[in-house]
Amino acid sequence: MSRPLRDTELSGLARGIVTAETTQRLNAAQLAKHQILVETVRRRAARTQSASTVATLTRAVELLTEIQSQDPHVVDELLALPQIGSWAVSCLEGMRRGERPDADYLAQLAAGAAFRVGRECGPPADRNGHTFFPGLGVRDGTRWTLIPHLRVRAGELALSVNLDAMDPYLGMYGRRTRPNPREWRDRLTVAWRILVHRHRSSARVLAVGVRTLVPLAGPTSGPPFSGTSGWTYGAVATSLPDDSLILAETLIHEFQHLTLGAVEDLVALTQAYDKRLWYAPWREDPRPLSALLQGCYAFLGVTEFWREERNAGPPEDRRRAEAAFARWRRATFDAARTLSAADGLTATGRAFATGIRERLEPWMTEPVSPAAERYAARAGAEHRARWEHAHGDGHANSRVGRISRASARG
Amino acid sequence: MMESGHDDGTGLTQLVPMSLRRLAELDDALLERVVERLVAARGPADRLWQRGDVHQGERG
Each residue of B25-36: pLDDT tens digit? Predict the structure, then answer.
């Protein structure tokens, strides 16, 4: 059986170098993960749940299996939906607490597969007579409310995503909002042009990796709220910023998280026993080591984005690009040094910490304006002081690691 | 740089690619071992990475 990732690909990933081909391999591994989780839900339910729940799950898995054997693309596309991971993990968590798993959801997914191959199998409707098809929409009799699908193109590269404010298993990121698809399409079109023209390799990765945007409520100006989950690979949740440059940066930031999460599903990066919390220069709260590594990886992508923007972006945006580059290269480099010295990483986790640091190292000496350097130093120091004021004394002798405090001097 | 990238493998690697039909034939012990490493006691609220959260000051 072929391995999902070659060692050379893993080495590239450790330095934050992601290719479309690597992403396709991660996509395949995530599909396998979803299938494993679905099968596990079925088996665990068979041991503990009522006959009707077991029957619903069994019928759904049998239908998916049958359609997959005839038309694998249809079923694979549905099983790869980001929300299938969070549905399965919710079921497993619920069953550990003695709750009934949401078997109807899998029945609806299977019905969606049947529907796509021209079969009708009467999935369960809610008490209003509505039937929800994950990834597709809601049917009320013959009337459909479809999940908006956005397709934006620049040159030969297209980004094709669902804009999903409906699915119950995409609700963990924050409060969702009913999106205006036209507004999203317009903003995304500009962001996509920026990515394709100035961040082409990232655009290639996003084109094969992102399949769902989850619209969050958030500020209409300034930085958006955004998030991702290790259980919903392929989904980026974000509020809609008024600035497409920030939307482009957000997509890169968030997909870095998804990439590292997908790697972590293949190979552990941190030791489970390490429960210490650490200073992260982009958060107000102390973070576990795995989250610090995640943040470093995401901000490596952010730093690279602004580095490119300050060189190739429009002149009117170069000052802020330079300030952002100076700010995040320093913060990410310091955090990567903290990581490199931490003893809670596995061998692969250490390779990622080293890779991030080595990638940033040559960027640290690239000249920026004195104003950008001053801004980066001041913003970093203020954040650190604020964090120490909030957490320093309370955590110094308990859960915040000694290295994290030492890094303040670094 | 990386001598063995899969030193702490979760076991998922062994099951890529695999159809639902073949998964149904997999023995319980192997499946549970992989799922234990992938999920353990974690739930949907774990592995959540948020930026610019309403509870946060600076974006992070």
Answer: 999 999 999 999
